[in-house]
């Protein structure tokens, strides 16, 4: 059965804090919930490739193969597709460290991170931690709480995505394909590679941490 390599581009936030830095994630597990192909940037008439929960650690060496097992491409109808819409769960499983202001902040297994509270992390060995994609807001660098003035999280102008919305339990992104795909007889092969060297953010003032975007490279053959 033909499988599709799903394009997972994550463009999450914009920062305005001088101490804010990014760091490497050795684990970066996301949960895909739905993937749709679209013929325009607004996805007015999408085709659902798959709609089921699938966890994938994109920091792992076999990330492409795991993501590629999501859904069959055999049912894609004839037509030309220019964009892809991806729905993700807002909870990510992450292990990583960020050095900011001379302080090495590490994911510590804490459970305080929610929609309006960044992870209040530790300084020891990084451990696997459930991190939540916070709301667009201003956050306090001293404790990571929403309503502060030190760290700004915004999804209004993503770097790679055409658009992004975060609400409820979901994050929804629309991306432009590198080249339009026209469905003929042969199912497509979409190759994707990931780099999570700068996939988490942190502020050394009080070691608060948040989810950043990984690097993604895509080609369609």
Summarize the structure in words:
The protein is mainly β and 221 residues long. Helix content is 3%, strand content 47%. The chain is built from one helix and 16 strands. The chain has one helix at residues 63-68; strands at residues 21-38, 47-50, 54-57, 79-89, 91-100, 103-106, 119-120, 129-132, 137-139, 151-153, 161-167, 170-183, 190-195, 200-203, 208-211, 215-220. Strands 1, 2, 3, 4, 5, 6, 7, 8, 11, 12, 14 and 15 form a twelve-stranded antiparallel sheet that branches. A two-stranded antiparallel sheet has the order 9-10. A hairpin with a 4-residue loop joins strand 14 and strand 15 (208-211). The longest helix has 6 residues, at 63-68. It is elongated. The two termini are 17 Å apart. The model is unreliable at 1-18 (pLDDT under 50).
**Low-confidence spans:** 1-18
Order of helices and strands: EEEHEEEEEEEEEEEEE
Distance, first to last CA: 17 Å
Number of helices: 1
Radius of gyration: 18 Å
The helicity comes to under 10%
Shape type: elongated
Fraction of residues in β-strands:
over 45%
Number of strands: 16
Main sheet, how many strands, which sense, barrel?
A: 12 strands, antiparallel
Mean pLDDT: 82
Helix/strand-derived class?
Answer: mainly beta
